[in-house]
Amino acid sequence: MDIALEPIPAAPAPAADASTPDLPPSLPSLREVTTGLAGLLALGAAGAVGAHGLTLHAFPGALWTSAGALVLTGPALLVVHQFLGLQAAPDRVIGSLAHALAKGGIFALGLVPFQLFFSVTTTRGPGFLALLLCGIAGSGLLAATRGLVDAELHAGATPMQRLHVRGLAAGWALLTLLVGLRLGWEVMA
Amino acid sequence: MILIHRAAELLRAPGAMVDRIEADASFAEEAPRLLALLALGALTFGAVVGGYRGGLQVPFAAVKLPLLFLVPMMLVLPALRGLWSLCEVDVSYQRLVTAGLVGGARTALLAAAAGPVLWLLFGVMDYHLAVLSFVGVLGLCGLPGLLVVARAVPAGGRSRWVALGGSLVLLGLASMQTGWLLRPFLVRPQSTDVVLLRPVEEDVFSAVETTAWSALGVYDSESDFGRPVYRGTR
Fold it and tell me: Is B98:B6 a contact under the CB 8 Å cutoff?
């Protein structure tokens, strides 16, 4: 018996919400990501400068805690996003995280002179590094969650899906923050 | 003469000046003029502050004041672009630097204008009140300068308030530590110990902590500075 495999007709894409802002490209460029990662590494190096009892632990600390937390929680976000049947394409979800990581890293690169100044002139270099990392994490997670919600709205989510994605984004941000804190604690200990 | 025109422009319409410099692509010509105005205003204000004691402290404070304006800006500006970009507001680095210079020069000129008032007040004030007045005048004159930078950033961005708050925190911390490193600005009139810079000991946060405990009446053994300091729980 012949079985004809006919392509499943694609469901018409729901209309995007006109009030949502234009989405950035799905994934950041390699240059943006590389600059971001270099920025996190440089911030850690700036925190490790100075002879004030700081160990070399801090050197990879910024990169380890930020990128590590995203790598550990990103797949979980992707799985739950698909499990809930939300509208945005998986590459948009990954893109939101990658954009936040790249922009957070570029912010970290800009903070290097600031961190260096406090590492050299005070004994509070590690404290400042931790404080700056919390600031980068907070603003980066805010950008990532906004990106996630924007991607969903742009894909034409139903009101229930909008509610789901907001809950998912908030839960994921909290999880990432806690994982980042645990990684940071282990690095500094 | 051109400096007078530029001073008038940045005092009357600083936002329009930032826009003009960006539109004309005249940053290379205008940056030295803005730096000169900033240095001139800060030197004048510094001389007034140093005049509380007089003598060698006048040139010392005059030379250090421009650095108090410039160093925090140089430390923080690279981070601001990244922070604003993270908060969905794209602003060019050159526009931020222009706004920083215009804001700094505006603050310095306003501080110089407040100099004669401060000098008069110094005549009737004790040391602590004079220090408070110095900080108060700097804060008052710094506000219009900060507004220039805040307004130079393009509109939009749903997390704008995060970027604004973060920028203020970074600038505040950098200014505090720079001020601490460049101290003393004000020296007691009867003091014979006049130095350009004090040794790098402790930091501004330790000083604030010590002052806070002292204000609560909690003192302990003598610190390295020869003044009472809180050391741990009692």
Answer: no
Chain A, chain B: beta-carbon pairs less than 8 Å apart: 74
Chain A contact set for B159 (CB, 8 A): 139, 142-143, 146
Asked if B69 and B44 touch (Cβ cutoff 8 Å), the reply is no
Q: Which residues of A touch B (CB under 8 A)?
A: 21, 39, 100, 103-104, 106-114, 117-118, 121-124, 135, 138-140, 142-143, 146
User: Tell me, what's the ipTM?
Assistant: 0.76
pLDDT tens digit sequence for A75-125: 999 999 989 989 888 889 999 999 999 999 999 999 999 999 998 888 888
Task: Assess contact for A92 and A28: CB atoms under 8 A.
Answer: no
> Which single residue is written with the structure tokens 């600005």?
B185
Low-confidence ranges of chain B (pLDDT < 70): 215, 219-234
DSSP H helices in chain A: 30-48, 58-83, 90-121, 125-154, 159-188
